[in-house]
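Dear colleagues,

As part of the handover before I leave the project, I'm documenting each prediction I ran so the next person doesn't have to rerun anything. This entry is a single chain, and its sequence is reproduced below.
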Amino acid sequence: MEGSGPREPGARMLVTARGQHDTIGGGHLEMCAVEVSRAMLKSAASGAVASPRLERYALGPTLGQCCGGVVHLAFELVDASLADVLEALRARRREDNWRLSAIDGPPCAVLLDADGAAVAGTPGNPPECDRERGTHVMRDQAGRSWLVDPCLAPRAHLVLFGAGHVGAALVRTLGELPCTVTWVDEREDMFPAEVPANVTIEATDMPEACVAAAPPNASYLVMTHSHALDQRLCEAILARADVGWFGLIGSDTKRVQFERRMAARGLPQERIEQMVCPIGLPGIRSKLPAAIAASVCAQLLMVWEDQFRTPI
């Protein structure tokens, strides 16, 4: 991408004969991309080779969009030849991967791990790529163009305690975002039958163990059915020195009570001050579970973008 565009570099969209999933930003650009994609699908269905291609779109002069930048779109046919790459991506979704796909000549794709070793895809020697650059196009020594597509594990991880109405509403929203969630509650029957793919359920009588098992710099959100359990979890979380962010549902009064109890138990004041309570964005006063979830989710996005110095 050159200049401004409707999505960040690396945005993806899947187009089928009758629908589409995700977005590259909507508008005229997306309409053109869908047309090209469906033409490739039609060509492949007729038996022709639908080779990958790279197209350049000037958003202002060509498409009349206000962004005004230039977007380069890579088009690839997803068929049985990519089955092993897709299966490896699914199995390795909690790990960093880099997908290299030839965008001129015969279709060719390979999946690399964090060490640059091929773990799936077309046999052969993939070209060396710069895994620090993000999404980009490179040329190998033979002059062939390759799309370098980072498929990175989500950096943001939330440990969510409480499977009540607000917790359930929050999980539904977070299920659409590039993060991972460990959802913890003592009451197994409170969890829905199905959860988003990025959510792991922990039904346990020892929720404090989930604090100990959390990765460094994780975020924590406590909203259980019990103030006594909330208190224990707060103390376990603030005992860690590597907390990325910690929020507790409740009022200013609840915060004061918890602060006094934790101070009496010897927790350092600088740790206690890490606790965010009340949670959510200022100005949103609704107590509807969906409204609280929307407010807290927006707060988490702000925290994570600041923490990782990039849009998630």
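Residues 289-308 form the longest helix (20 residues). The chain has a mean pLDDT of 92.

All the best with the project,
I.
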